[in-house]
From TrEMBL:
<keyword id="KW-0547">Nucleotide-binding</keyword>
<keyword id="KW-0328">Glycosyltransferase</keyword>
<dbReference type="GO" id="GO:0004845">
    <property type="term" value="F:uracil phosphoribosyltransferase activity"/>
</dbReference>
<dbReference type="InterPro" id="IPR050054">
    <property type="entry name" value="UPRTase/APRTase"/>
</dbReference>
<feature type="binding site">
    <location>
        <begin position="197"/>
        <end position="199"/>
    </location>
    <ligand>
        <name>uracil</name>
    </ligand>
</feature>
<keyword id="KW-0808">Transferase</keyword>
<dbReference type="GO" id="GO:0006223">
    <property type="term" value="P:uracil salvage"/>
</dbReference>
<protein>
    <recommendedName>
        <fullName>Uracil phosphoribosyltransferase</fullName>
        <ecNumber>2.4.2.9</ecNumber>
    </recommendedName>
</protein>
<dbReference type="InterPro" id="IPR000836">
    <property type="entry name" value="PRTase_dom"/>
</dbReference>
<dbReference type="InterPro" id="IPR029057">
    <property type="entry name" value="PRTase-like"/>
</dbReference>
<keyword id="KW-0021">Allosteric enzyme</keyword>
<keyword id="KW-0460">Magnesium</keyword>
<feature type="binding site">
    <location>
        <begin position="129"/>
        <end position="137"/>
    </location>
    <ligand>
        <name>5-phospho-alpha-D-ribose 1-diphosphate</name>
    </ligand>
</feature>
<dbReference type="Pfam" id="PF14681">
    <property type="entry name" value="UPRTase"/>
</dbReference>
<dbReference type="GO" id="GO:0000287">
    <property type="term" value="F:magnesium ion binding"/>
</dbReference>
<comment type="function">
    <text>Catalyzes the conversion of uracil and 5-phospho-alpha-D-ribose 1-diphosphate (PRPP) to UMP and diphosphate.</text>
</comment>
<dbReference type="GO" id="GO:0044206">
    <property type="term" value="P:UMP salvage"/>
</dbReference>
Length: 208
């Protein structure tokens, strides 16, 4: 199984609050934001940089520039939107695409309802969605993007199930997966155990 589990005390502590069923949407969104920023540190670690000259008040020296105009961040709606602000705070020049998918509650198959991606096919795509459960949604999003001609990907999530990691590894072995936690298994309804419940519902307060 190919997966980067970003193990860090700050992430572990925040994940504990995020998982807690008593955490309300207001705090849930804030925690999601904070964890996304910490994860992004690892997700972007190998982005290419080039040297540029810079003059400090004291001397000339060498600085670094990141080619961030070539980065496209793609949230999978809805829950992926909960990650977006954090990514744009750190990479404000990134372009943003949107893929709308929702799981059929019976079959657990993803149903597509929206897709709009910036045109640059050579962009480095950071696909974001807090939950990787069966992997059907992430795998379908990556297939759609590849069919449109996009080539470079990394996937960032918060909680992954082994079933989802295996599917994405099998269908998209070129795509590295970064997660804050690798959980135990899926239950009979396709929810991650222990997980955190339905991420979209918890971000947007649509839980009954
Ligand atoms: O790995 P999978 O089994 O495909 O499950 C993961 C998907 O399920 C959730 O979305 P959901 O379908 O609940 O839509 P929502 O974000 O609108 O709530 C989640 O945000 C993922 O997109
Ligand atoms: O546990 C899960 C599985 C799919 N989608 C979620 O939001 N949570
Ligand atoms: Mg949902």
């Amino acid at each position: 199984m190919q997966i980067h589990v970003v193990n860090h005390p700050l992430i572990k502590e925040k994940m504990t609050h995020l998982r807690d069923k008593k955490t309300a949407p207001r705090n849930f969104r804030r925690l999601l934001d904070e964890i996304a920023q910490l994860l992004l540190f690892e997700v972007t670690r190998d982005l290419p940089i080039r040297e540029v000259p810079v003059t400090t008040p004291i001397a000339e020296t060498t600085g670094y520039a990141l080619d961030i105009s070539g980065i496209t961040v793609v949230p999978i709606l809805r829950a992926g939107l909960g990650f977006l602000d954090a990514v744009l705070d750190l990479i404000p020049e990134a372009r943003v695409g949107h893929i709308g998918l929702t799981r059929d509650e019976e079959t657990l198959e993803p149903i597509k309802y929206y897709c709009k991606i910036p045109k640059d096919k050579d962009a480095e795509i950071i696909l974001i969605d807090p939950m990787l459960a069966t992997g059907g949604s992430a795998a379908a999003a990556l297939t759609m993007l590849k069919e449109e001609g996009y080539k470079h990907f990394r996937f960032m999530c918060l909680v992954a199930a082994p079933e989802g990691v295996e599917l994405v590894n099998r269908e998209h072995p070129d795509v590295p997966i970064y997660t804050a936690a690798l959980d135990d298994h899926l239950n009979e309804h396709g929810y991650i155990v222990p997980g955190l419940g339905d991420a979209g519902d918890r971000v947007f307060g649509t839980v009954e």
